Amino acid sequence: MARVCQITGKRPRVGNNVSHANNKTKRRFLPNLHKKRFYIPEEDKWITLKVSTTALRTINKNGISAVLKKAKEQGNVLY
Questions:
Q1: Is 78 a domain residue?
Q2: What is the C-alpha to C-alpha distance for residues 78 and 16, in angstroms, rounded to an integer?
Q3: Which residue, 16, 56, 48, 14, is CA-closest to 32?
Q4: Where would a tag sit more exposed on the chain, N or C end, judged by fewer CB atoms within 10 A?
Q5: Which residues contact 71 (CB under 8 A, 6 or more apart)?
C-alpha cells in the first residue's frame, strides 16, 4: 500500500507533461505523504500512520480520535 494516505485514501493520479511544443508524455502526480506518529490517549498507545498533509490539517482541527473513528467507518485506516 505504498503512496496511499491511510486517513483520506488519496493515491497517485495520472496526467501529462506538456512541453512548449505541446508534446504530451505520461506522468504521475504523487500525494504529499508523511510518516507520522500519533498518540491516542483513550488507548494509551502510539500509532504510526502514513498521512497526507490534508489529513494532518484535519487531525489538527478535529483531533486524532474523531478522525480515526470517521476513517474506520469509511474503511480507510490500516494500522
A1: yes
A2: 31
A3: 56
A4: N
A5: 6, 7, 8, 77
